[in-house]
Amino acid sequence: xxxxxxxxxxxxxxxxxxxxxxxxxxxxxxxxxxxxxxxxxxxxxxxxxxxxxxxxxxxxxxxxxxxxxxxxxxxxxxxxxxxxxxxxxxxxxxxxxxxxxxxxxxxxxxxxxxxxxxxxxxxxxxxxxxxxxxxxxxxxxxxxxxxxxxxxxxxxxxxxxxxxxxxxxxxxxxxxxxxxxxxxxxxxxxxxxxxxxxxxxxxxxxxxxxxxxxxxxxxxxxxxxxxxxxxxxxxxxxxxxxxxxxxxxxxxxxxxxxxxxxxxxxxxxxxxxxxxxxxxxxxxxxxxxxxxxxxxxxxxxxxxxxxxxxxxxxxxxxxx
Length: 320
Hints:
By secondary structure, this protein is α/β, with parallel strands linked by helices. It has helices at about 5-20, 25-35, 50-60, 75-80, 115-125, 160-165, 175-190, 200-215, 220-235, 240-245, 255-270, 275-290, 295-300, 305-315, and strands at about 40, 65-70, 80-85, 90-95, 100-105, 125-130, 135, 140-145, 170, 245-250, 295. Strands 2-5-8-1-9 form a 5-stranded parallel beta sheet. A two-stranded antiparallel sheet has the order 3-4. It is globular.
């Protein structure tokens, strides 16, 4: 039996072996899991978003609970509902698919606002309230949602409150030419003899979280760098005129907490017990891109949130 870090590295390798060309996506999913957060995967259909989540659940050795979001979905289809039992003459709670360790919300931006609202309590409070009674969700509880780009027909932008519940917003792009060749060979091999990654353990994730929390340190200058990055999104004009014309509303204090958590988890995965500025810069796009409200000037110039964060990292320097 290796160290917790070695076991998590083995789990990561198992998932990556089944998801060719999306190493960054797999790393972000693992970081969110280690930080007890949720992740939003955005990309065009067919890029492996759903497959990534399935392989992660398989590697963890847990059942994947999947909900396909559609325009006619009801909140009770997600959270569960009260059901009348004739044999007892009473109403009992019938849990919905949200009651699972790993929950895949497929195409989250195709459902109406009332369904999105039903997820808020579950994602933030780790509980569901139905009929005046509160029901705790399993621990760990990990929501992985996929969405198509909002320009796609039949999609709707997620409300800011919903977006802010996600620890990471991961962009899923096209694989390289060599990776696509690897995908072809991988799927062909699976058709001949199905393979799955080795089973992992929920207990391993719990132990890894505890180790990250107690062993990974962060220096004061790196802490200040994290705060400076987030504050810069609220006062962009003081740093750069162009950046000021791109950002209408900056990130909330929740972004500071998220940068701290994810940076420490990345340092731990890299084999260190301390956080560097490079850790912060590496995770900043996924942590910040969904927490910024872009101004009309950015939209008019086709400037997306990823480019805004890149500019932010260019103009904000770490002290000392």
